[in-house]
Amino acid sequence: MNKRGSALIVSLWALAVFSIFAANLGFISAGHTLFMKRELGNLEAKTDFLKGLQSASQAILSDPEPHEDSFEDAWYEGRSDEESKLNLNFASEPFLRNFLKLFEEKVDSLKGERKDFVKQILKARQKGKIPSLEELYLLEDIEKEDIEKLRPYLTVYPEVSQMNINTLHPLILKALIESLPGDSFAKDELYRKLAEARLFVSDDLIPNRLAEKLKLTPNLSMLMLVNALLPHLTTDSRTFRLVLASSTGKKAEAVVREAEDFTGLEVLYWHEG
Amino acid sequence: MEQLSHKTSLRAPKGRSNPAFEIASSASPPRNDSPKFGFVLVELLVATVLFSLAGSGLYTGFMQGIKANQRIKESFKTYDPFRILFFHLDQDLRNSVFLRDYPFQGKKEEIGFPVFFDKKVLLVHYFLKNHSLMRVEKELTPSPFSLSPRGGEGGGEGKGKILLANLQALEFQFPYKDEEKNLTFETFWLDEPYYGIPRSVRLNIQRGELALQKLVSIPQGRTGYLQKNE
After folding, report:
1. Where among A232, A247, A262 does a domain terminate?
2. Is A218 domain-assigned?
């Protein structure tokens, strides 16, 4: 009677050993599968990025009015233009100073000194065009945290100094107007009315037309201010920032520019997370 | 008999008689004193056949699993170092950035370029040393040293590791278009004129009997232009 359970015990032991062996095998295989899955995921992400780039290219290049860009355009969804930002390669010293001051007042405080930031940007520009925002990480007296905070407002990519009045960030517009010569009342009025109107076509960017459209106070001070402002403005954006997401959860950020012959997009910046 | 009557008393609830048991206990005399256990021959045969079938199926499946695992292991052992190298190379090249003081440097057996990754600017260098492909990275910081031209070992020593050892041959190639606009790959990336980051980097490796080629496409890169005399 005592031997009746022996077969069961032997079977259970065999099953236990077999299970451990099978689990080990499964564990090793799972590791390998995970590695291959990761590789496959990378490949899938690259394909998705390419598709995203093609779709963005199609949306941007099929714009019926390529010289009149605003956030109301179909291409604007999920994208942004670099002409809506402060261009570090062209911004004047007062413009940079005003922007940083307004940034600290309205958005967030900076760790470093504003004057140091401006000084370093101007110094970097003496060597030629700043080719990427990553170059800021190599500048002395500029804090890494400040670059991260300011990054969404800054660009180096458009080849021209003009910013798109239709998409320009209000903070940058205000900083720009305040950096121009003229009296403060006229600047306040101009900023207020520009911010209220906000949808312009290229024909509006003529002094008299703009003054008429915005119903500006007709005086010499205002006229001089409008004349000083208009060379900085455009309605045409040619450089765009895309955020591409893949089905695997990977993300990529790209800055693209319409090619000279309008046949496609030229990638100026690429970053994969 | 005593046993049987005990069973009967167990099965029949108290106060109730069970006619069936009464009949059985009185009509069937015991043939043996000991109770009967075990299986008949047919049962044993069926059980043996079933166990054999299950066992052989399990064994075949298990052995196939082991063999497949061994094949995978062998394949991984051979290709794993390449996979790791390609993963690093792909990630680094696709996140390469334009920095004026650190232009992309490409030669037959080495490449060096700045990378922006994880909110850090790194200087990454791949090179062949003692038949091993090394990857060295160092963070570029705003120090006077880090602004020295590339090749100057400013900013301290970087972190290095061997990505692939025992190499017979290694070659980096870079894309150019010639005067007829044909695409060719050369083992140098020109410093003068400088075309920025190359549109792609092709890597040819030979290790043992295995010869592999990997092409990494760089979205932000450019294709060089090569005149015949270059």
Report:
1. A232
2. yes
Residues A92 and A28 in one domain: no
A120 shares a domain with A222? yes
Do the domain assignments include residue B207?
yes
- Chain A nearest CA to B114, separation (Å): 10
Structural domain span for residue B22? 1-31
What pLDDT does A196 receive? 87
Q: Could you read off the pLDDT of A95-115 as tens digits, one per residue?
A: 999 999 999 999 999 999 999
Residue A93 lies in a domain: yes
Model ipTM? 0.84
Residue A195's domain comprises 87-232
Inside any domain, residue A49: yes
Record the pTM.
Answer: 0.79
Number of domains in chain B: 2
Cβ contact A137–B97 (<8 Å)? no
CB contact under 8 A, A35 and B66: no
Which one of B62, B72, B146 has the shortest CB-CB distance to A29? B72
Cα B10 to the center of its chain, rounded Å: 65
Digit-coded pLDDT (tens) for A138-157:
998 899 999 999 999 999 99
Clarify whether residues A47 and A4 are in a common domain: yes
Instruction: Calculate what percentage of chain B has a pLDDT beyond 90.
Output: 52
Question: What's the whole-number mean pLDDT along residues A233-248?
Answer: 91
B66 contacts chain A (CB < 8 A)? yes
* Residue A20 near chain B (CB below 8 Å): no
Instruction: Give domain status of residue A73, yes or no.
Output: no
Nearest CB to B100; choose among A128, A267, A268:
A128
Nearest residue, CB atoms, A132 vs list B87, B99, B120: B99
Say if B66 falls within a structural domain.
no
A221 vs B36 pLDDT, higher one: A221
